[in-house]
Amino acid sequence: MEQSAEIRVCHLADAAATAALGRELASLLLNGGGAASGAAPPTLLLQGELGAGKTCLVQGLALALGIDEPITSPTFALAQHYSGRGADGQPHALVHLDLYRLEQPAAAAELFAQEEEEAGALGAVLAVEWPERLPWLPDGAWRLELQHDGDRRRAVLRPPHSAA
Questions:
Q1: Please, which residues bridge with residue 2 across strands?
Q2: What domains sit in the chain, N to C, each tagged with a CATH number?
């Protein structure tokens, strides 16, 4: 992964590489702070067109959290909650949110607020697909944009509060 001014860029050859990036990001999110009382949960905002690999990346994230149940896109359910036990023996949780079907920013913001609160209560990592449906981007969230790049994908990771 290339790094420039806090923004990290990498090229992903296939779905396995995309899932591997998700596993790497789990460590980054868990070590970047947890959900203390009243604090926002570790949050990853996933942007990219349909088929860019957002759910595939969340599958890798879930594996690193010790979640062994199938991870599917929550497009129709809007949100899925998972729990597992990591290699460190610690319990971990994941809230996977997909805002694609919510075209009204107020509806997306309301669902996000509910799931953010739930993720905070669970001590979960919050992964949000289609955050551009929100009227604002949440403070303290990591942003990952996945783009098609020929036969590969290009991933651009922006840390919280990045000016770019």
A1: 9
A2: 19-138 (3.40.50.300)
